[in-house]
Design a protein that fits this description.
about 140 residues, 6 helices, mainly alpha, Four Helix Bundle (Hemerythrin (Met), subunit A)
């Protein structure tokens, strides 16, 4: 069985949780709030990217070749994980929302994007921790 190192993903999740906690403790009209919000957004992006990379490794045995897996889009990685019962349909739908949110950063890195990201964080943390269990065969 393929062993996948999730140590960096664990650090990403811990950073995201800490950023989210600190953000909720800080008044919105302060520079500290901006700092924690920026940290949260970046941590969200890094956690999402790492989740996809590790999930790609997890689904590789389901394919005839690594080349076939390398051709998958980021969303396809999560669709195939669902197809092979690694994640639920509901989780897959949420992962698509996370990816869509992440993709919007290239067009809009402002306040609206940050607020949208904040609405996703609690589910994202749960889904990411569940995904880490799947990757670790727990």
């Amino acid at each position: 069985m393929l062993e996948i190192n999730t140590e960096y993903l664990q650090k990403c999740i811990a950073t995201l949780e800490k950023s989210y906690y600190m953000l909720r403790q800080t008044p919105e009209d302060t520079i500290d709030y901006e700092l924690y919000r920026n940290s949260l957004v970046k941590s969200f992006e890094m956690t999402l990217e790492q989740s996809g990379k590790l999930l790609k490794k997890k689904i590789t045995p389901y394919f005839a070749s690594k080349k076939a897996v390398d051709m998958l889009s980021f969303k396809d990685i999560f669709r195939y994980a669902h197809k092979h019962s690694l994640i639920t349909e509901e989780e897959t739908i949420r992962w698509m929302r996370y990816i869509d949110n992440r993709n919007s950063t290239t067009h809009n890195y402002g306040l609206a994007f940050a607020k949208e990201t904040l609405t996703l964080i609690e589910d994202f943390l749960v889904d990411t921790k569940n995904l880490m269990k799947v990757i670790n065969n727990d």
